[in-house]
Write a structure and sequence with these properties.
Elements lengths: L15 E5 L8 E4 L5 E4 L9 H7 L7 E4 L4 H4 L2 H7 L4 E4 L7 H12 L3 E4 L5 E5 L2 E7 L11 H4 L3 E6 L2 E5 L5 H9 L7 E3 L11 H7 L3 E4 L12 H9 L3 E4 H4 L2 E5 L4 E5 L38 E2 L5 H4 L7 H14 L16 H10 E2 L3
Parallel strand pairs: 3-4, 4-5, 5-6, 10-11, 11-12, 12-13, 16-17
Antiparallel strand pairs: 1-2, 1-14, 2-3, 7-8, 8-9, 9-10, 14-15
Length: 367
């Protein structure tokens, strides 16, 4: 049985914990920030193991954010039990409805418990701790239609950034989603949660070449009836040089990030994967997640920072941008999502074309 090494120092040493839970043929990912904020992405089917029991064994007594990447049963089937057993502060999904009992029950509980609802859209940025952000890359304002599976293709795609480390969570995104993300200039990310349980309908070569993952995580059930993971997708992942870790072979898989390096640990022994030691002390929950722009991401433009992920302090370094205008920019992003063009800044009261020219000397716009 797997138990975790959460030394008291972890909460203060800046360790971000990302665990791919082994819940059979489905997805469920638990994130814990250094300050103890908690995020659950998807909840499996609810049949292959007790998700509530798993969370409670990790001392999770509340969730700051629950994310349903899309309303298929293998992603939301266990969320209703979690909602009934554990307090949840905010719930985020792709805004698409479904006719299943699982979807209806989850949404009824969100409403009954008056949980804050967030519709996931590209450009929204959620801050966990300083230097740790969740950036939504998909779905777009205009949903993908007439794909092999519109629910899959409009999965919530999230980029989790912890200083120099990056994690990409893709739900059941398929080829059309990946094509669109590449067109929009998706940046490299060393950890990829492989889409759709390793299906051949995902993990296209042009997408993998753009993301350049070093670690590929596959969540799936042993001997599942879908034939996941697909041989073709696994071969493509190997060709780009990523190391593959699968829950059907390794059980729960945990990644520990200090912002510079990532350590991988698993439930079962495997080459280059170490066992995890018992819990010493639970991490305390401190503050709710804030839906605001956060620390600067790594930028491809030397000496400049991204407006969409800037802090107030960074914005105030620009001539003509004082505290009030900096706050106005942050508030605009929080309310309307990311800027797509730097000239859109003129929409903010007090910012004209000359100010935008000064801003462009120190900053740029990227999703």
């Amino acid at each position: 049985m797997l138990v975790f090494l959460y030394l008291c120092a972890c909460a203060f040493a800046g360790i971000l914990e990302v665990e791919i839970l082994d819940i059979g043929q489905g997805d469920s990912i638990l994130i814990r920030s250094p300050e103890g904020k908690t995020v659950l992405i998807d909840g499996g089917t609810g049949r292959s193991g007790d998700l509530v029991e798993i969370l409670q064994s990790r001392n999770i007594d509340s969730l700051n954010l629950m994310v349903a990447t899309h309303p298929h049963a293998d992603h939301i089937g266990g969320l209703d039990e979690v909602l009934e057993a554990i307090p949840v502060k905010a719930y985020l999904d792709n805004g698409m409805t479904h006719t299943t009992r699982s979807y209806a029950k989850v949404m009824r509980l969100v409403e009954q418990k008056k949980i804050k609802y967030i519709e996931g859209k590209a450009g929204r940025v959620l801050r966990l701790d300083d230097g740790i952000t969740l950036t939504l890359l998909h779905p777009q304002d205009v949903r993908l239609k007439n794909t092999r599976s519109d629910l899959n293709s409009n999965s919530v795609v999230i980029r989790l950034t912890h200083k120099d480390n990056c994690f990409l969570f893709t739900g059941d995104a398929e080829e059309e989603t990946e094509d669109l993300l590449v067109q929009k200039g998706i940046e490299p990310c060393e950890v990829l949660k492989v889409a759709h349980h390793g299906s051949n309908h995902s993990s296209t070569m042009h997408f993998l070449k753009a993301v350049q993952p070093k670690i590929a995580l596959v969540s799936l059930g042993k001997n599942n009836r879908y034939g996941h993971p697909g041989e073709e997708s696994m071969e493509r992942i190997k060709k780009v040089g990523a190391k593959i870790y699968r829950t059907d072979l390794l059980g729960h898989i945990t990644l520990l990030s200090d912002g510079k390096k990532i350590q991988i640990q698993s439930q079962k022994k495997a080459p280059s994967v170490s066992n995890i030691q018992p819990i010493k002390k639970p991490i305390e929950h401190k503050h709710p997640i804030e839906a605001v722009s956060s620390e600067q991401h790594k930028t491809p433009i030397a000496g400049k920072f991204n407006i969409n992920t800037a802090t107030q302090a960074q914005l105030e370094t620009i001539k003509g941008i004082g505290p009030s205008k900096a706050q106005a920019i942050l508030s605009y992003i929080e309310k309307n999502g990311a800027f797509h063009d730097i000239n859109e800044l003129v929409k903010i009261k007090g910012i004209g074309k000359k100010t935008v020219e000064r801003i462009s000397q120190k900053a740029f716009v990227a999703p």
